[in-house]
C-alpha cells in the first residue's frame, strides 16, 4: 500500500492525495513535478532511480486507507544525487 506522503521532500510543497503533480520513485520518495524536472533532473537524490506519476487513490478508498500525514524533508537540501 502506497503511503501517499503529504509533501515534496525538496521544497516542502503540499502534495495532497489527489495531487496530479506528485512524483515517486520505487522507494516512494516523494517530490513535486517542478523539483523533479528543474532541480533533480529526473533522478531521485536518495536512491538514484527514476520517477513516475504517483497514482491517485480513489476518494472512497481514502477513508479506509488514509494517506500518510508524516512529512519528510531533506534537511541538507536537495539536488542531484552525488556519485559514490
TrEMBL record:
Matching Pfam families:
DUF1272 (PF06906)
Output this protein's name: Urease-associated protein
Cross-referenced InterPro entries, in alphabetical order?
A: DUF1272
Q: Which organism is it from?
A: Mesorhizobium australicum (strain HAMBI 3006 / LMG 24608 / WSM2073)
